[in-house]
Amino acid sequence: MRRLLALSLLLAAPVYAQSSALQYGRAQPITAQERQQGAQANQGLIQEYGGALTGRQAAYVEQIGQRIATQSGLSNSPGAFNVTLLNSPVNNAFAIPGGYVYVTRDLVALMNDEAELAAVMGHEVAHVAARHSRSRQTRAQRNSILGALGQLGLGALFGNSGLGGLAARSVPSLFQLDTLGFSRSQETQSDDLAVRYLASANYDPLALSTMLESLAEQNQLQGALRGEARSLPGWASTHPEPASRIRRAQQQAATVRVATPTRNRDAFLAAIDGMMYGEDPKQGVIEGNSFLHPSLGIAFTVPQGFTMQNGTEAVSIQGSGGQAQFSTAPFQGDLGTYVANVVRGLGGGATGAAPAQRTTVNGIPAAYTQLRAQSGNTPVDVTVFAYQLAPTRAVHFVTLSQAGRGPGALEQTFGSLRRLSSSEAAQIRPRYVRVVTVGSRDTPASLSARMAYPDYRLERFLVLNRLEPNQALRPGDKVKLVTY
Fold first, then answer.
1. What is the pLDDT of residues 282-292, one digit of tens each?
2. What average pLDDT does this structure show over 350-374?
3. How confident is residue 139, by pLDDT bands cut at 50, 70 and 90?
4. Domain 431-483, architecture per CATH
5. Is 173 helix (H, G, I), strand (E, B) or coil?
6. Nearest CA-CA partner of 291 in 280, 283, 299
7. What is the per-residue pLDDT across 393-448, written as a single tens digit (0 to 9) for each?
8. CATH number given to 281-427
9. pLDDT tens figures, 89-135
């Protein structure tokens, strides 16, 4: 999701000096310094991804994650690894030095058995075992936080102007960025190591390749949902091309032997049955071109051609006509002061804003200001538009666009913010993974009709279960649905 640029060959080359030892599980043990680094970053990462889930599903993920992590050689003790199931609708997994491993609930839901869960966790642990993050930190230290913002489509607009505060609430630390993006050679090495971890834990070594197939299909589906004829996977810039990566994982699996390779599909499906899927209404939801937040009791829409990404504390908006974020900040009762504080928080390049002008939007008190800033040598327009929702609560947009355009098309979004009715808020409900048994008359079409979505029900069902469009279902088999 967020990644730095690929490493140079010079930085990546030393990684393979230890690959021959790593492939046999002889990684250097976790050091005290790495444990300290991981402990310092842990809570921030958890917060960034919606918090940690608890209960039986989290306990199951922790058990499998610890089991596969011990195959790396970092430690022989399962307790040395802190495995967290994150309350996030994105498809992501990562690990950081010190024995900290993370996976999001929606990525777990995309899996179809325990071996695939182990494969994903093994891949992330392999990055740590190979000390890939040391190279990433070297690169990160040479990049300003604005370089990282550029990966979100925000910082590139400002270069080194100092306007990094714009996205502070949705941008991870440099240490986090360091853990979330790797070079192609590092990804390949981690895939290879993950296959060996699977074999040493008696899992089917083909599980990595089948999981990669599901990820490729999910990325194509997400592209279709966004109206794209063809979707390039988000990790394509640093990961090997999907088809090649799948083939290599299959080839690597053929080089290892497992007497009784296990998948543990039934145990896996039983464990994830009832797990939340998609966005958590407590953090707001995106439906088409609308964002709805039942807890705040508000909604807004973005113009056609703009996309939204919902973070823990901010919604990022991007389109060809400009970019924006929707967030909140401490409010002391005066909108003019609130707007001025937001402007100050943007950094050194955002100065000279006029006093906020007052207005109302759909009956909600509002205030706004616009200023000119510099992106390197290029002037840009910044608009801050804030709303008072309650005596102690305000929210705001910050938009960025080329100089002279003001907020452009996003001005429509300013006027779209409204209060949700109690009935509208009540209709925003969480979705859950439900495991059902295929009946004698069930077909993909009949089962997918039960999916809690207004569109692409069949496509969502097929991808979720890694099924082909014309694949027949066998009575007695278990499949996943997403329902209310």
1. 999 998 899 99
2. 89
3. very low
4. Roll (3.10)
5. coil
6. 299
7. 999 999 998 888 889 999 999 999 999 999 999 999 999 999 999 999 999 999 99
8. 3.40.1000.10
9. 989 999 999 999 999 999 999 999 999 999 999 999 999 999 987 65
The Cα–Cα gap between 298 and 304 comes to 20
CA 338 to chain centre: 30
Collapsing DSSP to helix, strand or coil, 394 comes out as strand
Q: Which helix (H) or strand (E) covers residue 144, if one does?
A: none
Instruction: For residue 341, give the DSSP letter.
Output: H
The edge-to-edge listing of strands for the beta sheet with 276-277 is 276-277, 431-437, 478-483
- Phi, psi (5° rounding) for residue 142? -95, 0
Q: What are phi and psi of 245, to 5 degrees?
A: -65, -40
Whether pTM > 0.85 for this model: the answer is no
258 contact partners, CB below 8 Å, separation of at least 6: 198, 199, 202, 203, 204, 205
219: alpha, beta or left, given left = phi > 0 and alpha = psi -120 to 50?
alpha
Element of type H or E holding 310: strand 307-310
Displacement of CA 250 from its chain's centroid (Å): 26
Which residue ranges does the chain devote to CATH 3.40.1000.10? 281-427
pLDDT at 153: 29
Rounded mean pLDDT, 370-398: 90
Bin 473: left if φ > 0, else alpha if -120 < ψ < 50, else beta.
beta
* Structure-block tokens of residue 72: 């790396």
Residues of the chain with CATH 3.10.350: 431-483
Structure tokens at 125: 């642990």
